[in-house]
Amino acid sequence: MNDDRNGPESFTSIYEAVYPVIIRVAYHITGNMSVSEDLCQEAFIKYYNRAGTLPTVDQVKYWLIRVIKNLSYNYEKRKGRERKAYEKVIREPQRTEESGEIELIRNETNTIIRNALDKLPHKLRTILVLKEYTGLSYKEIAATLKITEGNVKVRVFRARASLQKLLNEEDIYVP
Amino acid sequence: MCPDNEVLSAYFDNELDMLWRDKVDIHLSGCEECRKKLNSFGFIRNGLSTYKIPDIEEGKIRVWQGIQRSRDRIRFQGFWKRRFVIPAPVGISIIALFILVSGSFFILRPSGNSTAVAEESIDSIEKSLIPGSTAETFKELIDFFDSQDVSIEVRIQIPEGSGQIYVGTPRLLRAADYKRGKN
Question: Of the candidates A48, A109, A161, which has its C-beta nearest B71's C-beta?
Fold first, then answer.
């Protein structure tokens, strides 16, 4: 791979295309932006060191999503939820553009959704994150996770049903 | 009849082909229960969308700089520290070929004192082993056996460690026939 070219297959162009996708995947699994950035750096370095090239940018994207998913879950397993919650309090930026009450409700909603997502099994959480936060189609998700489209369809529904059940147990504010 | 929940979920994600989409459209116009299910998917999506990711642009630059530093370190490592990856099928083939070649070498190598038994001419026999026979050569021995009204059992003992490969069953040939076959 030629790093100096700005064509579609250069490392730079792949980084530009894929970073926004994998940072979202990492963030919605780990809940921590700083950690997510570190994991993305690790994923791209793994890709850079990878002997052999992948034929298309899409294949690279799917490969990197798989890597970031595994890195994120490994991080989560290593650090544990208590420490993650502590780091979130320290590092999350505070939004100030809305009134205090709405901001408070929004933060509470985010926490409830975060907790509900954490409770989902990994398979369902991954599918929901890929569907709702990265804009991938069923076909792309199937190619990324190496499962069938039918499988994706079933898992998306099951993830929604499970999440709804968890959210119904809490009162959440949806503006 | 209501479509499966997975079909409704795929409809919500705009993942159905046109034929199925039209069918579901028609069904939804008359089924409140399925419309409620669709609304619940919208509720989930709205709920998830409130959980927003912070701005990614600053981090994108930071991560890129980190990658550049790692790349520069890798470039200066030199040839002998690089990783080489051999695909598994190629690696297995190389190992199998090595085993085959080295195995063949040990099986087929000639032993120090062997000549092909088949080519060795037997021109002397141990007379004491055959009472009543004055045969000096193997041919005379065969003739002697022919003249006897007895059945004999012939055992062919191949020297141990001769490095021979045994194929088929042994049969007795006259020297003349053997030499004719060779020619």
Answer: A48
